[in-house]
User: What shape does this take?
Amino acid sequence: MTNVSHISALERRHEMLEQQISIELGHPSQDALKIQELKRKKLEVKDEITRLQNETRH
Assistant: This one.
């Protein structure tokens, strides 16, 4: 997989995580641990996107 296609896949994953977080925040009985885990995964994906974008630019 090229960096560009990998970045695109990661961007889709990032958006899916954002949607999951929004859904969880909308529940009357929010699961704080689940939300925290989703946010952590989202940040990891964002960091990977940034790393790959920097590699692609060099």
Observations:
- The chain has a mean pLDDT of 94.
- The two ends are 18 Å apart (CA to CA).
